[in-house]
Amino acid sequence: MYLMEKHLQGVIDAAPDAEIIIADDLSSDGSVDYIKKKFPRVIVVKGMKREGFAANVNRGVNKATGDVVILLNTDVEPEKGFLQPLVSHFDDPQVFAVGCLEKSWENGKTILRGRGLAHWYRGFYVHSRGEVDKTDTAWVSGGSGAFRRFMWNTLGGMDTLYNPFYWEDIDISYRARKAGWKILFEPKSVVGHYHEEGKIKQEYTATDVKRISYRNQFIFIWKNLTDPSVWIAHIFWTPIRLVQALLRKDFLMIQGYMLAVLRYPLVLSKRRIQSKLWKVSDREL
Question: Structure pTM?
Answer without folding.
Answer: 0.94
